[in-house]
Fold this protein.
Amino acid sequence: MNKRYTQAHQQKPWRLQIQRLGLVLLLLVVLVLSFFMNLNFTARAAQAGVQVRLLEAERESLIRSISANSTHLALLTSATTMQNRAKELGFVPATRADIEYLYIPNYIGKQPEPVTIPRSVSKQENFQMVPAFTQSIWDWLYQGTFIMLDKEGQ
Amino acid sequence: MRREKMRFYFVGIAIILFSIAIIFRLVQIQTDPVFQEISEKVGNQATYKPKDFEAVRGNIYDRWGNLLAGNNEVYEIGVNLNQITESNKNEIINFLSSLTGLNRDYVKTRVEIPYQPEPLKENYAVFSTIYRNASEKMVEEISMAQDTNRALYPITWNGRLERTYPDHRLGANILGFYSSGGFFGVEGFYDNILSTVETSTFISMNPYDVMEIPEIPHGASVILTIDREIQARMEEILDRSIKDSGSSSGTVIVMDPKTGEILAMATTPRANLNQTSEQILAEYPTLHVDGYDIQTPFNRAIMQTYEPGSVFKVFTLAAALDSGAVTPETEFLDTGVVNIGGMTIYNWDYGAWGYQDMTGCMQHSLNVCLVWMAQQTTTKTFYEYLSAFNIDRKTNIDMDGEASFPFLSPSNPTPFGSDPNAPRWYEGMIGPHSFGQGVSVTPIRMITSIAALANDGRMMAPHIQKAVIQDGRIRYYNPKIVSTPIKPETAHTITEMLAISLEKEASDALVEGYRLAGKTGTAEIPSPQGYVAGQTNASFAGWGPVDDPKFIVYIWLEKPQSSIWSSIVAAPVFSEIVENLVILMDIPPDKIRMEMASSQ
C-alpha cells in the first residue's frame, strides 16, 4: 500500500513540473554564472592588458628618464662646471709645492666610479610566451583533447 | 479557412526567403575579397598602431667613470591632423608659434597638412611634427595650457633620446659626434656596438591581444682610457700655448708607454658637440692652401701627417745603437756639412760642432752627425729598423679616420707610381730621413713608435678603449705588443742619453725633482715649391720618470710665430704638462719614490 502511495506521489503532475522547472532554473543559473564568470574574466583580462600597455609605456619613459638623469648629473659635474665651482669656492690648482707625499701601506690609489652595468637582454631573447596567454578556450580544449588522444595512442 | 491558410503559408515563405536572402548576402560579404579587404583595413586602423622601438645608444665614459657622451630626453611636438578643425586651427597655430619661436607661416603650413589615414597613399599624414628637440619645460607649458583650453588638445608630443655631451667641447676630437650615425673618433669607430638596430612594428590596441613586445638591447657602453682631468688640463695648456706662440694649430698626446693607453689627446679646433652636424662641421672649415682645398682635420693627432723633423732622430739613434753601428761613446767629428746623393746637408745653425759623442749629437741635434749615424748603420739596416718601428704603417688606433702618408724606402721606392716626375726613393734620401725630413707621419704614429724607447723596446698598440660594457658584462681590453723593434738595453741607453742631453742643455723641458728624457724637433714645412722659409713645425717627444716611465708626451705646434724653434716654444710646454701630470697622476718626485721603495 505504502509502495503504491510513493509511486503515485512520484508521478504527480505538479511534481514532474517542479522537477522540469528546477532543471531549467539550474541550467539558467549555470548559464548566468558562466556569463558573469566570463564577463569577470574578460574584464580582468582587458584590465590586465591595459595595465601591461601602461606599464610598457612607463618603462619606456623610465628608460628615457634614467638616461636623461644620468646625463643631467654629468652636466652638473662636468669638468668645466666643477672647475668653475672650485674657483668660486676659492680653490686653486695644486702645484708641486703644495703637495706632501706620505707612504700609506696598502693604499690602492684612486678608484674609478662604479659604472652601472645594464642587465643582459640576451636572456629575454630566449623568453617564449606561454601559450596560455594567447590561446582561446577552444584552442585550449582542442589542444588538450589532442594531447590526451596522443597519450592514449601511445 | 483554406484562404486563411494560404495567406499564412505565403507570409511564412516570404519570411523564409527574406532570411535566406539575408544569409546569402552575409556569406557574400564575408567571402567577397573587396569587402574582406575593406573590413581588414578599417579593423586594422582601429586596432593596430605602428610603433618605433628606439634603441638606447651606449654611453661613453672616461677611465674614472665620468660620463663623456650620454643621452638626454627631448620631445617632438606635433599635432594630430584628424583633430584639426577650422575652429581650433588658428588658436593652435598662434600657441605653437609663440611657444617654439617658429615662424607663424611655417607652423600654419605644418598644421594645415591634409589628414590622410591611408598608409599606402603618397600623401599619408596623420601626425604633423612642428618642433623637434623640445625641452621638458616646453612640454609642461603645453600641458598646462591644455588644462584650460580644450582647443589645444590636438597638440601632442613624443619623448625620445638625443645624444648629449656633458662636457661640450672637451675631448671633441676624441669623441666624434652622433647624427643618425657616428662620425669621427670613438662615435665613428665604435658606432656598430654603441648603437643597436631599431625596430618598428604594429602594436595591437585590443587589450585582449597579448603580444610580445620586441625588446631592443641597449647599445654597448665604452669606457675610455682617457682621464677627463688630464684631458681638460692638456686642452687648457695647449690652447694657451697656441695663443702665446702664435701657432696656427696644436696637438698634445699623453700616453702610458707600458700599455699604449691614451690618457689625453688634445687638438685644435674642438667643436661644441651639442650642436647640429652642420654647425659642428662648420667649425672645421675647408682651407685653400697652395692651390688645394684642405679640410681642417677633426682630429689632427690621427688625421694629419706632417714632417716631424729632429724628433725623428731618436729612430736613427735607436737603429745605430741597436745594430751596433755606434755606441754612446763613439766620437764623430762634425764639420757642419755633408753631401749625400747630390744633397748638401747642414746643421740647424749651419755651424761645425767639432768632436762630439753620440749624446752630444743628440743634445745639439746635429743633422750632419745623424746622417753619418744612418750611413754607419747601412741603408738596408736603417730602413729595416724604421720598418720595425712601423713608420710606414698606420697605428690602427681605435678611432675613426686615421691617416697615413706613403713612406719612400727601398722596399717601397715608387708609392706614387712610375711617373718620372713623381717622388721616388733614391739612395740619398737616407740623409733627410735620418733627421726627420722627407717623411710624413701623424702625431699618433710618432708617439706610438717613440713609446717603445720608454717601454724596454716593446711597442704597444695605442688604444682608447679601456673596456666595453655589453650584455650585462664588462670586458677589459688587453694591452697588445705590436713589435719589439729594439733590445731593452738599447731602449734604456737611449732614454739615459736623452735624459743627459736635456740636463746638459739645461732645457726648458726639465722639471725639478723628476728625471725626464726627451727630444725636440723643428722641421721646415714642405710645399709644392719647396720648403717654406720662416715657417716650422715645432715638436717635442718626452717621457718620464726615466727609471720607470709612467707617461710619454708628444707635442706638435704648427707654424709658431714667437719663435720657430721647438726648444723655445715646445720644450716649455712639455715642462708645464709634466708639472701637471705628476700631480694628476700621483707621481712623487724621484727622491721620494726611491725612499718609499726602500722603506717598503
Notes: DSSP finds 21 helices and 24 strands in chain B.
